[in-house]
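User: What would this chain look like folded?
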Amino acid sequence: MRTHQIKQFIEDNAYLFWYSPHPKSETVSDELLVETILNYGRLEDVRELFNVVGLQNVAAIFWGMTGRKKLNYFPEIYHYFNLYFKKYAS
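Assistant: Here's the prediction, encoded as structure tokens.
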């Protein structure tokens, strides 16, 4: 069950999920949310993601992605956030 804050965050960033059917807040998985915001979101969006979902939870979702899903991140984004989470979310 999604919190109201997370649903509102997804709706505020709905333009990033243009390919997802409406209502976006119900159809976007946690993995897709983290991947999309880290890849395409602005710095303010990333900060808000950390505030709404929690830094530890975002790191767990990021590291929990395996196999092909990790290839969905841009290489520089994956490298940066891998280092970032190792330093601040370990």
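Residues 13 and 38 are 12 Å apart (CA to CA). If you want, I can go into more detail on any region.
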